[in-house]
Amino acid sequence: MQVHKYDVVIVGAGGAGMRAAIESGQRARTAVLTKLYPTRSHTGAAQGGMCAALANVEEDNWEWHTFDTVKGGDYLVDQDAAEVMAKEAIDAVLDLEKMGLPFNRTPEGRIDQRRFGGHTRDHGKAPVRRSCYAADRTGHMILQTLYQNCVKHNVEFFNEYYVLDMLTVDEEFTVDGVTRIRKRVAGVVSYDLATGELHVFQAKSVVFATGGVGKVYKTTSNAHTLTGDGMGIAFRRGIPLEDMEFFQFHPTGLAGLGILLSEAARGEGAILRNSEGERFMERYAPTIKDLAPRDIVARSMANEVREGRGAGPNKDYVLLDLTHLEPAHIDAKLPDITEFARTYLGVEPYTEPVPVFPTAHYAMGGIPTNIKAEVLQHNDTVVPGLYAAGEVACVSVHGSNRLGTNSLLDINVFGKRAGIAAAEYAVTAEFVEIPDNPLVETERLLDTMRSSEGGERVAQIRQELQDIMDANVQVFRTEQTLKEALEVIDKLEERYTRVTVQDKGKRFNLDLLEAVELGFLLDMAKVMTAAALHRQESRGGHFREDYPERDDENFMTHSMAYKDPSATETSGVRLETKPVVFTRYQPMERKY
Ligand SMILES: Cc1cc2nc3c(=O)[nH]c(=O)nc-3n(C[C@H](O)[C@H](O)[C@H](O)COP(=O)(O)OP(=O)(O)OC[C@H]3O[C@@H](n4cnc5c(N)ncnc54)[C@H](O)[C@@H]3O)c2cc1C
């Protein structure tokens, strides 16, 4: 066993992890552990933009942005966090500009801005230009810029190191004269892909920035690597997961494939049509139409298909029409995504509408944090030394539905906050002693899979999991579909204990790691489904056909899912609640 010692260990080298590393690296001895080479992280696939009320092209301000974020999230947003994000957005964009990011420019040389769903002028009056962008490769530019700046600041990277476990100790603490127990972080355990060796990283602070969990679904915009590892590790170690029932389906995935066509297309003027050529969003969101938030557009599309107005031979998709836009405009603003339509569907967007259907896209839920990016063990109990930021975290700025371009913003604002807070904590804190036998859990996990002769295959179980999630935990849900899904997941979990890995070697054993990742996917699918079953209302991205209304009286609360084997009714997931933070906005009916 090799042991390393750092003040701060950051797990994940996407946008959130590297933004944190730039801050932490300048203040404390920092290591970044990442299962992917940093510039392969999913942030690099982000297309459309990152929003900030710069008011470069039209009037705007951070308060409108906060309001849009709160309303977009169907009032489940913690309003203190949304305020922080909207205010700090401006510096977040300017920081990137100073680091060298090549944003698109206006003719006057300012950072250009475009429209995106749910971002409006003066509390919903009309769409506003708030998204800063670099063609339709904004995430790519952010990731490259952050990586270069990490290199500049001598951040140490451990590439292709898979973190598989977190080490914690229990400690007593006293509030209001009552003594309670909380966790404190001591480090992480990671697996070096090249050698198959396990390494312990002892750290005063650990930042989780491991991204999302889209691979629980079959039809998804997410990379193969988004398997919810960070959420899974935290959950297994007794940290709750917040608001996991809220998963975003992005309206415009390429039909049948799920590959994303950015909302920037609609921001630049593209229109959704049904088989009759009707611009159907006019019926669902009369004011902002195709630029309504994603939950509303995705449901409207699914509804058009259900009611028989889908296009194509099987009437199972709708059409994204860009044919009225100038080809030169398309080439300048949307080069990559129009190329995707040509390559993967053989459709020419200049002259033909593109078949699209909702695709699983983004986890609104995750590891609960406060606005300092500190992880919460219970509603207000912080785990000293533990931080989370980015898609793995739930701070919660997205509530029950994220607005487009708010995630690239979230990773920059809260990535930076996490990096600063983790380093500042590490400067004064002492190392926590590594528990005895730190590898015991990880070795047990790996040994079972290496030695199992049970004959179950990873690919088969994963496919069955994705099939049931696509069928039953989708845009529309009911108690029946969710209960069925839980039963299937339970059976898959049981089969997972007999999973057999064919590669028994030590070097570059991706076969083994895929099996480990499948374990996280199973855990997260279970949490998402159990939380969806528990929430008997419809809000944002979570639509229960058996409870079609929002129910503020009973469900204006975050859900907190804990691992608890005694909760047998819900497959070992215990659900509690946490109050939503309100500052200036009272819930209203959500109309666009
Ligand atoms: C196709 C697509 C387009 C998008 N477009 C936009 C957009 O235009 N605007 C917007 O705001 N949002 C967009 N999003 C969402 C946004 O890109 C993501 O939510 C965000 O980039 C996530 O960043 P992150 O740093 O949290 O995670 P990621 O960038 O996914 O990085 C995760 C990191 O964690 C590491 N990791 C994971 N597990 C482990 C482990 N076990 N051990 C070690 N390391 C691990 C990985 O190696 C990786 O470095 C888009 C998403 C997709 C999929």
From TrEMBL:
FAD-dependent oxidoreductase 2 FAD-binding domain sequence ranges: 7-408
Range of residues in the leader sequence: none
The protein's matches in Pfam families, at most eight in alphabetical order, are given as: FAD_binding_2, Succ_DH_flav_C
What's its top-level EC category?
Answer: oxidoreductase
The record ties this protein, via SUPFAM superfamilies, to: FAD/NAD(P)-binding domain, Succinate dehydrogenase/fumarate reductase flavoprotein C-terminal domain, Succinate dehydrogenase/fumarate reductase flavoprotein, catalytic domain
Per the record, membrane topology reads: Peripheral membrane protein
Indicate what this protein is called per its UniProt record: Succinate dehydrogenase flavoprotein subunit
> What is the native source organism of this protein?
Arthrobacter parietis
List the lineage, top down: Bacteria, Bacillati, Actinomycetota, Actinomycetes, Micrococcales
Which gene is the coding source of this polypeptide chain?
A: sdhA
